[in-house]
Design brief:
Blueprint lengths: L30 E4 L4 E3 L8 E6 L4 H4 L2 H10 L4 E6 L15 H15 L4 E4 L5 H6 L6 E4 L5 E5 L4 H9 L20 H11 L1 H34 L8
């Protein structure tokens, strides 16, 4: 499958699976590209706690939380924060699938202008090597401990849950999934604005997929609830995908 998708299609995502490094495992190291073109390695943050979030300028799930991250940065000044720019979540003719690194870096730079992003932004390569290794979802969050191991991960960033997790360091509990009810979805206004900036095709693709989005998230909830019960009892309980 082509990594840089030219259209948003829900069938290209399996929201009931979250592959990538598990809690307690070493975080795979990758060389990313800074906005100035310099290399940025995940291993360069060793010795410090690091919060990594995946994002793109067309991702509403990312945009909904940018303003709230500032409060967490002030609350936890010992942390390092890194946004990794991945593929476009909702590509359109104005913000199309990435053709080259210059285009991708330019779009990554727009996070500061469009959303007031204050964290360090680094760009994954065109093949999405880091993104695919960590799970391929649009708005994942990982907490890496000073040893470079995964201390926490979630398939969608939830500010309240991340706040709780950060407050529990160093003894954070393994948590793989935030239930849909705990997520704060972007407003209709923010969704419309981001899609329109991407282009008419992005608007149409989202409208076409909208009736299936919530049921898909609910299926993910059931899958992870069953997995959590399995992990705690050692008995496979099934799950709905």
């Amino acid at each position: 499958m082509t990594y840089n998708l030219s259209r948003f299609n829900l069938s290209d995502y399996d929201l009931t699976r979250f592959p990538g490094p598990e809690v307690g495992e070493p975080a795979p190291d990758f060389e990313l590209t800074g906005l100035d073109g310099s290399p940025v390695r995940l291993s360069s943050f060793r010795g410090r706690w690091l919060v990594v979030e995946t994002a793109s300028v067309s991702c509403m799930m990312y945009a909904r939380n940018v303003g709230k991250i500032g409060g967490l940065k002030q609350k936890y000044p010992d942390l390092e924060w890194l946004v990794v720019y991945v593929r476009e979540a909702h590509p359109g003719h104005r913000r199309p699938a990435h053709r080259d690194m210059d285009q991708k870096i330019a779009l990554a730079g727009s996070l500061h202008r469009d959303y007031g992003e204050s964290r360090t932004v680094a760009v994954d390569n065109l093949s999405g090597d880091m993104h695919r290794a960590y799970g391929s979802l649009p708005n994942m969050v990982y907490l890496l401990n000073p040893a470079g191991e995964v201390a926490y991960r979630c398939d969608w960033l939830s500010i309240p849950e991340l706040d709780t997790v950060l407050g529990r360091r160093p003894g954070v509990e393994a948590n793989q999934h935030t239930l849909t009810d705990d997520l704060h979805y972007p407003s209709v206004w923010l969704t419309a604005k981001i899609l329109w900036r991407s282009g008419v095709v992005a608007v149409w693709d989202f409208i076409r997929a909208a009736p299936s989005l919530l049921p898909t998230h609910r299926a993910a909830d059931r899958y992870y609830a069953a997995r959590k019960q399995t992990d705690s009892t050692g008995v496979e309980n099934g799950g709905s995908a």
